[in-house]
């Protein structure tokens, strides 16, 4: 049953019709648990609140489905305005971007233009931009673009996913770039030809690639709510005498709030991934697919 629900949510998340309905009716039915709001102003207020208790942030203007160049340019404009708002308010936040929202599905050239514009603005402010990894068809292209951008920019990183067989080799290949990587388990539905189908294998590979990247001496953002993984990382960095400035823990907005605060109190750097915007549906469906128990929370909100 859980597998069926997970597949259903992942399929819904890619539905253009469902995404249009979600934009029309706004943040309802529990999505606000995982999405900080529909405007930059609301998102910046959340960032300020997190900063007050010692957490830093990466802001993500939600959007994955752009169908023409104008929409891609508008999405890039929102990223620029987000960087402006971060600087103007003086809050501690990076920016995360999905390249499909910047036109990658339309043309590589369009996406690169938008990425360079965003990275230039971020560099002016001394800020950092993280390229989110999307589903498998975009994996190699995303890494290729990251490599090209890394030749001109120091303020850019990328996400790699533990459920893909290829990730261990990707980390080794990116070692020479001193890549700043956000390492995640992975939230898209991928075939067994490219991804580990069993959770245990994903978890084992996740531990391997975290250790691999840390031992390479490169900055590692461990993005997980799995306390067993987090405890493993804490033990590993202590045993290998890896300094605290080489890694951070990352968690999603609305999830494991107590754990986030506890890690801050223990002296670890914690970054909260804070999404905002009207194009929230695909992100929300992936959160439900990751943990179908969240559906009960949504159902309760529908009848309030």
UniProtKB/TrEMBL annotation:
Q: Which UniProt keywords apply?
A: FAD, Flavoprotein, Nucleotide-binding, Oxidoreductase, Proline metabolism
Q: Cross-referenced InterPro entries, in alphabetical order?
A: FAD-linked_oxidoreductase-like (IPR029041), PRODH_bac_arc (IPR008219), Proline_DH_dom (IPR002872), Proline_oxidase (IPR015659)
**Catalysed transformations (reactions):** L-proline + a quinone = (S)-1-pyrroline-5-carboxylate + a quinol + H(+)
Instruction: State its cofactor.
Output: FAD
User: Does the record carry Oxidoreductase as a key word?
Assistant: yes
Keyword Flavoprotein appears in the UniProt entry: yes
Limits of the Proline dehydrogenase domain: 44-298
- The EC number of this protein is 1.5.5.2
Full protein name: proline dehydrogenase
Q: Which organism is it from?
A: Paenibacillus lacisoli
């Amino acid at each position: 049953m859980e597998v069926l629900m997970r597949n259903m949510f992942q399929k819904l998340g890619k539905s253009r019709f469902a995404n249009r309905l979600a934009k029309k009716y706004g943040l309802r039915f529990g999505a606000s648990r995982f999405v900080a709001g529909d405007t930059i102003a609301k998102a910046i207020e959340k960032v300020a609140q997190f900063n007050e208790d010692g957490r830093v942030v990466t802001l993500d203007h939600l959007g994955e489905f752009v169908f023409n160049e104008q929409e891609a340019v508008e999405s890039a404009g929102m990223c620029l305005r987000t960087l402006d708002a971060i600087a103007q308010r003086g809050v501690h936040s990076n920016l995360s971007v999905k390249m499909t929202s910047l036109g990658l599905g339309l043309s590589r050239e369009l996406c690169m233009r938008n990425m360079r514009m965003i990275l230039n603005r971020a560099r002016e402010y001394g800020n950092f931009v993280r390229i989110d990894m999307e589903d498998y068809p975009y994996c190699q292209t995303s890494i290729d673009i990251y490599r090209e951008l890394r030749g001109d920019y120091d303020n850019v990183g990328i996400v790699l996913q533990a459920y893909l067989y290829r990730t261990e080799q990707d980390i080794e290949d990116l070692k020479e770039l001193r890549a700043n990587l956000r390492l995640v388990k992975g939230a898209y539905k991928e075939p067994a030809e490219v991804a580990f189908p069993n959770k245990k294998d994903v978890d084992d590979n996740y531990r391997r690639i975290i250790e691999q990247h840390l031992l390479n001496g490169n900055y590692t953002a461990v993005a997980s709510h799995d306390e067993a993984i987090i405890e493993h990382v804490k033990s590993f960095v202590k045993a290998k005498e890896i300094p605290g400035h080489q890694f951070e823990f990352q968690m999603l907005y609305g999830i494991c709030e107590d754990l986030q605060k506890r890690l801050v109190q223990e002296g670890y750097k914690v970054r909260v991934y804070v999404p905002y915007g009207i194009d929230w549906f695909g992100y929300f469906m992936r959160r439900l697919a990751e943990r179908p128990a969240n559906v009960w929370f949504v159902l309760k909100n529908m009848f309030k």
